[in-house]
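Anyone? Bumping this.
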Amino acid sequence: MKPFLFALRQEPSQRHDLSRLTPDRLVGRTQKEIEAIDIGTTKVDAKVGDLFKVRVGDPQVVHFEGGSERFDLLGAKLLPGFAIHVEGDVGARLGRGAQGGTITIAGDAGAFAASGMTGGQIDIGGDCGDFLGAPMAGEIFGMAGGRVVVGGNVGQRAGDRLRRGLIIIEGDAGADLGARAIAGTIIALGATTGRIGYLNKRASLVLAQGGDFGPTYVDCGAHHFTFARLFSRALAEDSRRASRLLSQKLRRFAGDTGVLGKGEILTPV
Amino acid sequence: MPQLVRKGVRIDDSFAEAFPMSGTGLIITAPNRKWAMIAAHTMTGFATSVIGCGCEAGVDAELSVKETPDGRPGVRVLLFAMSSKDAEKQLVNRLGQCVLTCPGTAVFRALDGEFEIKVGDAVRQFGDKWQISKSLDGRRYWRVPVMDGEFLVESKVGLTKKCVGGGNLLVMGEDWDTTMRATEAGVEAIRGVEGAITPFPGGIVRSGSKVGSQYKGMGASTNDAYCPTLSGLGTSVLDPDIGCVLEIVIDGLTDAAVADAMRAGLKAIIALGPKHGAKRIGAGNYGGKLGPFHYHLKDLLP
């Protein structure tokens, strides 16, 4: 059975809320019903049918042919067993609160991608905006499970208040990577700047390019970590470079000792 | 006893009677094979019989670097007990005293059962609050700082109640050397069967037992019917050409694993022939009324 298809007709004239187009919410619906779903966020009516040419198919797998940085909340609250693929860019809050499944974005993603995510996998081929995996206003923790792989660069404060899960950034990371992280793992293969791991409680930040982490991170020597070998093997399919980085001997900087201090920054020797 | 003959080896028309057990297992890895095996042997030491050891345990298989979760050499050990509570208690004790202490080791689950046992969650407190947990693909691991680095241990391992304990082969030969040669060949063959272990020393037991005793309070005593020094007496079931009997006891994760192990053992023992190996093969049972699993030798013959 062919996948469910949403082919973009034209560039959207407003921001759209695509949280209603997750595969689990399309099950059992007819083409007409789907085309009538309102995805607008302004006073101007915006139905699915106005924006997309819809082809009903296997709802387990939903394809978007053409994306836009105005497509917000794509894959929000996605459930295990479902998949979404976007041949293009997406907007803010990609995979917000996703509980499982896989989301693949060929282009770029906006801010707050993977925010509140608790399971599943998000692959972003291009760049990602600020606050990757971070909590929204009023929330006490960010991403709490699952795996995010970004092929390009990420904006500021990626992994802010990360609680659980894994973020791999193959490009450069903006300022304050892993700030206020509670736990979880962040792997950054490009350059990192700003207050890296600022107030990190228990998270592991693995940085391919090292850096200056300030006096609240304490050098604990270089070691072969068994957990890193475990991660190295598990990540081989997602990022070969990350996998290689984790298979090396790593220097451990324990911190941030300004807070709990049970976290760490690991860099290759 | 009615007998079949295969390649000159007499096979009793008998069956092994086995019992349900709770089983669990670990994958132990280390920087090299030597230390993975040391940890496995230490953990499965003094685990020959549930009667006196609380559990029966052994090495199921040696794992290559491609087969282990962390890409290091490893060993899969299995542990069986009469109840899930006993299995948990024995596993956690042995993990804490024999694997946590063993240089270089890490511990992962070997099987997904209907139940889970807290292992990492039980020993993590050795880290005195310096331990860190890591979650990966829905599984949780503890990193416990120790003097050679970190002890990585999975938080929970699987336990299944679908295991079988007490599959057995009685290998009978002319003397100790030929009987041992045949029995060792049987154990070696069983070693290749996944999900089955032979918990006794070297996989072999020489003190096979019967139920009951002439002494009060003893639940089991020597299997006098198979003792060659008593072969002239009325209770013996041994033929005049039998001078030694050795037993292979098999525990398996499944009914099929035990049957496969007995089949492999039988094949290897028979292949040696009666001149250099066993003259007769039997199996131990209690009349078939105690254990629900019956492995008839005639059904397992090559």
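Late reply, but here is one note on the structure posted above: Chain A touches chain B at residues 119, 145, 164-166, 183-185, 202, 204, 223-227, 229-234, 247, 262, 264 (CB under 8 Å).
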